[in-house]
Design a protein that fits this description.
single chain, 213 residues, 3-stranded mixed sheet
């Protein structure tokens, strides 16, 4: 009896030891699973951060490019307007300076609005006629007209922009002339008449003054 009891106790100890090992293995497996899941979460977070940063940088880059394009277009318009103004002023000073008695001269021209550019268009017009018969034996014609237009684009050095066929320069609304010889009434009259005839302006829109010594 004592031998059997000792044997049973031994078996019980073995079973308890086995269960302890199983529990330890299970805890270790659970710990490994938690660590693995944590690593996956960290990797997913890093991936989302990288992707978000990429799209943010791309969006910011596109916004910068659009802003640069807009600034370039505005700069081109301003440059064209300034160039036209300077061209007209220089030509006017050059021609008036050749009038006898005028001497040194300066001019300022006033413009209304800016330059206007007219692009080329592709006109797409179509017309179709359909004959229909009604239940009473009558016949009717149905005419359908479709119209539309698109702006013609040109590619210059990788830059796409509308093809301009006509440019309207800004209207001149007034001119101020300062000349050395304008103190002489005859010279002043010659200058005033030259300007009004050149630009088709009324006399009150052309001011001529003598230059300060």
């Amino acid at each position: 009896m004592d031998f059997n009891k000792s044997k049973n106790n031994k078996n019980t100890g073995i079973n308890n030891s086995s269960e302890g090992k199983n529990n330890l293995t299970s805890k270790k497996a659970n710990s490994n699973n938690k660590t693995f899941n944590l690593i996956l979460l960290l990797l997913a977070g890093i991936a989302l951060t990288i992707v978000g940063s990429f799209f943010k940088d791309t969006k910011a880059s596109n916004m910068v490019n659009n802003d640069n394009n807009n600034k370039q277009q505005e700069a081109s318009i301003i440059e064209a307007k300034i160039s036209y103004k300077e061209k007209v002023q220089n030509e006017l000073i050059g021609i008036l300076g050749k009038i006898e008695g005028v001497g040194k001269i300066e001019a300022m021209i006033y413009f209304d609005g800016g330059e206007e550019q007219v692009p080329a268009f592709n006109i797409n017009d179509s017309k179709s006629t359909t004959k229909e018969k009604d239940t009473g034996g009558g016949e009717r014609n149905i005419t359908q007209e479709n119209g539309g237009s698109t702006v013609v684009m040109s590619n210059d050095g990788g830059k796409t922009e509308p093809l301009i066929v006509k440019t309207y320069n800004p209207k001149i609304t007034g001119i101020c002339i300062v000349a050395e010889g304008a103190g002489d009434k005859v010279t002043e009259l010659r200058v005033r008449q030259a300007v009004t005839n050149l630009f088709g302006l009324e006399e009150e829109k052309v001011q001529v003054y003598p230059m300060k010594n």
